[in-house]
Amino acid sequence: MGKKKANQLGRSLIKDRFGQGNRKTVADGSMLHTTEVQDGYDWGRLNLQSVTEESSFQEFLRTAELAGTEFQAEKLNITYVNPKSKVGLLTTNERVEIIKKQVDMKDLLKIPRRPKWTKDTTAEELLLAENASFLEWRRGLVALQEQDGMLMTPYEKNLDFWRQLWRVVERSDIVVQIVDARNPLLFRTEDLERYVQEVDPNKMNMILLNKSDFLTAEQRVHWAKYFDGQGVRVAFYSAVLAAEEAKKEQEAEEAAQQAAQNGDQADDEEEEDEEQDEVKERLGNLKLSVDRAEKTLEKIEEKIEDLAREEDAEPGAIRNSPKLLTNAELIALFKSLHRAERVTKDIVTVGLVGYPNVGKSSTINAVFLEKKVSVSATPGKTKHFQTLYVDSELMFCDCPGLVMPSFCITKADMILNGILPIDQMRDHVPPVNLLCTLIPRHILEDTYGIMISKPLEGEDPNRPPYSEELLLAFAYNRGFMTANGQPDQSRGSRYVLKDYVNGKLLYCYAPPGVVQDEFHRFPARKKEEADIKLLPPRQQRAMKVRSD
């Protein structure tokens, strides 16, 4: 019954609105708006339109019209981009020119300074001075971007985060910048090192190259020599490897303790023979002797390496070891570095600063062997600096994750280096094209077990694959398809780019002065090259790049 009444009510409303009897007409009986009536004058020539409501953008255009400017839309100004092109990539000359410009202007890339203050300075005066100094710093960076056309990474614009950095620097004896070993110079902030020395010449700067397990021993030697020449102390470390080794040691100790407890219980139940006790004792002594011998050999090898490096180095110069440090070695290094007067008596305070995704929190967690700091790839996870005691002689001062200003060539570089989030990118073509220029075709095919379309006749047979060629093959192989049955390139691009950021697709940048092709050598092809014509016809059609 209710349903029938609802239908009748609906019909009544429709009749009331559109019925012939109640049709609302203008004077001449038509249903046209007065601006559309052809009553002797062409109103359309005036670009006239009845407006009762408008958005902020429309209001802006209306104001511009009142100022004497009329905007007209340009129709059919669509540009078709050929997928068989290096979209978003710079030419070699353009890239070299930008890098040269960045080197010339690197001294202009600064971090905000804390204004000078005394005991007589009030909180309000200090706050005003900090705000004024911060505003001036931001204006300088904007001018650098707009006037000089320099592309910069996103940087922290919240003054509270920089206040935390100022306090960490003031409280620390050693300020450690944690960088990604695959591209250390992008994440290194030279102006921070200058600021630390401005605050107190007794403070030390250091760079911790995390994720150094991605580097070979030869690559670490190249970077150690480079930073030797720069006069900067560096250490090579891997938070992931250190945490795994620490867990193995803990498990071994727990197993040994459990075995000892089981042995004690067995001793309580029945007496063991003296020969078994003697064998256990000998085995234990033998194990200790082997461990001591291994440590002695490692120390001898380190001394040989250091002696060899000392012969090449100048007197008084910094000599960095290319050795991949363990937790214990890293802690010992921190304790031994700072010999001057300390901020906190009898305690070495190490301030840790770093970009997101370089492993700052993971480093702290690996050293403590338990989760002390929340791990996140989002800047600002830690809102205030934290002090963490490693032992009675060493304390960590963890700074909130700060994204510091740095020069970058393109946005595609920022995505590949983990500075911009992959899930929020709008255009996947430029970063994937850049990835294809860095990672050879055969590495992509071996890693994913795919077959990428070969260059056509007349094209360079050794050219890198285009973004669409890689993503069509990858998405089809993984079953990522759109609603209309085409390989989903956008979804596939996120998987490929994340594999690059995580190191599955490995590319390590060479230090200045070292040839990139000699620094990073890719392994040979593992699988035999197959002909794409042998693939099923459906897959061939899906992998075909549309150039029209």
Automatic annotation (TrEMBL):
Which InterPro entries does the record associate with it?
A: GNL1-like, GTP-bd, GTP-bd_ortho_bundle_sf, P-loop_NTPase
Kindly state which keywords UniProt assigns to this record, in alphabetical order. Cytoplasm, GTP-binding, Hydrolase, Nucleotide-binding
Key word Nucleotide-binding present: yes
Domain of life, source organism: Eukaryota
Q: Which positions fall inside the G domain?
A: 349-404
Q: State the compartments where it is located.
A: Cytoplasm
Molecular function per GO: GTP binding; GTPase activity
Q: Where is the composition biased (Low complexity)?
A: 255-264
Tell me, in one coarse class, where this protein mainly resides. Answer: cytoplasm
List the residue ranges of the region (Disordered): 248-284
Is-annotated flag, keyword Phosphoprotein? Answer: no
Acidic residues: compositionally biased ranges = 265-278
Q: Name one GO cellular component term.
A: cytosol
Q: What does the entry give for GO biological process? A: ribosomal subunit export from nucleus
Q: What is this protein called?
A: Large subunit GTPase 1 homolog
Which organism does this sequence originate in? Anopheles melas
